[in-house]
Amino acid sequence: MQTTISSPKDALRTFFGFDSFKGEQEAVIQNLLEGNHTFVIMPTGGGKSLCYQLPALMQEGTAIVVSPLIALMKNQVDAIRQVSSDDSVAHFLNSSLNKTETTKVKADTVAGKTKLLYVAPESLTKHETIEFLKSINISFFAIDEAHCISEWGHDFRPEYRKLRPMIESIHKVPIIALTATATEKVQLDIQKNLGMLDAKLFKASFNRENLFYEVRPKKDVQKNIIQFIKERPGKSGIIYCLSRKKVEEIAEVLSVNGIKALPYHAGLDANTRGKHQDMFLMEDADVIVATIAFGMGIDKPDVRFVIHHDIPKSLESYYQETGRAGRDGGEGTCVAFYSYKDIEKLEKFLHGKPVAEQEIGFQLLQEVVSYAETSMNRRKFLLHYFGEEFDEINGEGADMCDNSRFPKEKVEGQEDVVMLLRTVEALEGKHKMKYFVDLLSGNATPEIKTYKHDVTEYFGYGKGKEDGYWSGVVRQSIVEGFIGKEIESYGTLYLTEKGKNYIANPHSFMIIKQNDFSDADGLDTVVKHGAAGGQAADEELFKMLKDLRKKIAVEKNVPPFVVFQDPSLEDMTIQYPITLEEMNNVVGVGAGKANRYGQPFIDLIANYVKENDIDRPQDYVVKSIVNKSGSKVNIIMNIDKKLPLDVIAKSQQKEFDDLITELEGIVSSGTKLNIDYYINDVLDEDAIEEVYDYFMEEAETDSIDLAMEEFDGDYTEQELRLVRIKFMSEVAN
Question: Is 0.70 surpassed by the pTM of this model?
């Protein structure tokens, strides 16, 4: 095979101006130049593109690069044109070109000017494309983002599985497949499908030691994100969301809070997507809020943070998306917000798909759950998933995760690990992780009863341990190599040789207590406000505010919670509001309530701030975006018209309980609502008076649970909530 430049090193200097290769780049290029099939697994930022760009520039003919995204093609073509004096050196051939542009691309390629021709897999299904490619001199095929071939990969595309017959019908030339993430299962799937089991494998380390990994409970997400970004002024970042709607919402919220953010998703037209991508690359925007379509091949080295608003569908997705941070070796912070409710939503999306696809999807999701909930070193967990060992004490980047910086308590688990391993051995590898957790915890599920394992010595062995303890034991035993996962049977566990040796010769094994995400609600609170239901940031101020509330309550002859509820006082200790406008940003406080009760609290806080020389975090006040649906306005107008509440709920496509929740929010923010016309229909006068008097005279808080206990079934929860709305509207507003 003829080359135009004597060695890869000379070519690297000539075309790219570098004196040395990264990692195994040179060996990869040499293998391809020798005409061999080549398989490259290299993390994002490792320099995959160079592995096919350089040999294409060195050889006669045109390299055909199969790439999944038009945006990715454009970006890479633009980049490769920078190393040549002739733009014809690289082209893409896809549906975005008009007839004249397509003719120009084909003419340049036939003339031998084009060294790299990027095509979409869909283009290779067209007869005219295949006939054209048969007519030109092809140096090799490069399959970029090769994980798209595998159903076990994180971005499976059926058209990728049709590449082999199409390639073989064109030319018998070497193939180089490249991906940033591939477990052993995905790797084998790719090689089988492309007919390149004889390919030489080049696998770089997956350890990105400069990245910091953190998982946070999914509460007050938007406020958290804004605070996070404002602590990093001028730094570039990507926020990933699973839905287009959420992308638009987050981008708008960031914008109204003074952050230069743009949305990116497939629902936008191509021009807008291209414009937003270019603005991000050119630093006219600091943050891109995107679905997973964004970022494949985007060569921006100084992305300083990647935030996952929604947990991804697989660890491959997570790894690749976080890998877009810190590609220059500098700072890269990766924060994911996690709630198990999000996992349940993703599981619902799998229903209706073929059974095998469901099983694969469920298993990939459970790996994500394990990663999110684990308390062990996250880097060790991730690298184990990709088949790489990691020393969490002395390895590069060992302390670069939340679990290592803030380690959880450890307990001796030797006996429990032995019991787990014996249980796995006894059940002969027929069950998945959850089954063993339920069995040892003593949870008699229908499946356990079916197998009659509820009458074995293993059932309930670990009863009484904290929630999540046995999940931690299983996860840590898997990472330690005592237990293996059978991929073909979708994650059933089996005992390894190392596990058998541990049973025979047990030794100390410290189990890390698991993270608790049980209170993550999967929902954002109202963006305008601070954190509700937490605890006071300034205990001294909180006590002073409670004393003031008590004093005002006595003066007004109302219960203290009518003035302001505890979450409102707690948020005041975080935000330190000193104007009525700022008081409106406090949780549970609207304009009505601020005007009615706010001034004494503002005066107290202003004095406190001055006396204690406090730095107020006003930069973090999160402004809310306009409620475009006008839902609340419609509700208030319909109540003014005295429409029945069940009719209003139906017209708003809400459950009745959800409407009540909305009414509670409207009233707690200081707006009066007169729903007497409805309450008088569902409760008699004495009942209304009894509940009303309870809240006025006996209740210490506005808790419905306590009210239910007090009335012991005399009234339904809905009835109590409706009277509480009447009470709060009349007394508090």
Answer: no
